[in-house]
Amino acid sequence: MRNKSNSKIVKALAAVTILVLAFSIGACVGRDRAEPQTILVTETKIHYQTVEKPVIQYVDKPIPVVEYSERVERVPVELRNFNDLDELKQWLENKMNITTIRLQSPANEVDCDDYAREMQNTALADGYIVSFEVMGRSEYNALFKNKLQHSQTLHAINLAIIGNDIYYIEPQTGEIAFAVHLD
């Protein structure tokens, strides 16, 4: 009886082992089929074009695509005097905040007339009328805070007209001095 009982136990264990193996194999095969395989494809394209200065075009009807051209056009600016002293001060503040480093040789010395011409050209490029002036040391020292040395008899500055008032501008410091009222 014991042999019969042992035989039943062995058969039962064999059956359980077969079921466990079958389940494990089925789970592995099913898992491979159950998980979808996906491939993520991304494609990024960046198109750019370097443009020094955009050219503004005025068109009567809207256009669907704006294209930038590498052609630079010079458009004449309508020159004008400053509207008021605040506009002049704001313009000077913007210009004086730009640092310019000048490398010079002994043969090409940068002095007051170079600064005055540079300010005049910058003003013209921005559409303002600013003139180039030369004045004597005594007149300069009477108007400006920084005084000229005795060895310097003349000094180049700039002049701006606002309404009926004339203002002198020291191009190296941005200092403004009232000169005269015309009326």
Brief overview:
It contains four helices and four strands, in the order H-H-H-E-H-E-E-E.
Characterise the protein shown here.
It contains four helices and four strands, in the order αααβαβββ. It has 183 residues and is α+β, with helices and mostly antiparallel strands. It has a domain at 85-181. It has a four-stranded antiparallel beta sheet. The N and C termini lie far apart (139 Å). 10% of the residues are buried. The mean pLDDT is 80.
Cα distance spanning the termini: 139 Å
H/E element order: HHHEHEEE
Helix- and strand-based class? alpha+beta
What's the average pLDDT?
Answer: 80
Major sheet: arrangement of strands = 1-2-3-4
Q: What is the C-alpha radius of gyration, as a whole number of Å? A: 43 Å
Number of strands: 4
Strand content: 5-15%
- Biggest sheet, in brief? 4 strands, antiparallel
Uncertain stretches? none
Number of helices: 4
Helix content: 25-40%
- 3D shape: rod-shaped
Strand and helix layout:
Layout: H1 2-34, H2 85-96, H3 112-125, E1 131-136, H4 137-143, E2 154-162, E3 165-169, E4 176-181
Antiparallel strand pairs: 1-2, 2-3, 3-4
What key attributes describe this structure?
alpha+beta; four-stranded antiparallel sheet; 36% helix
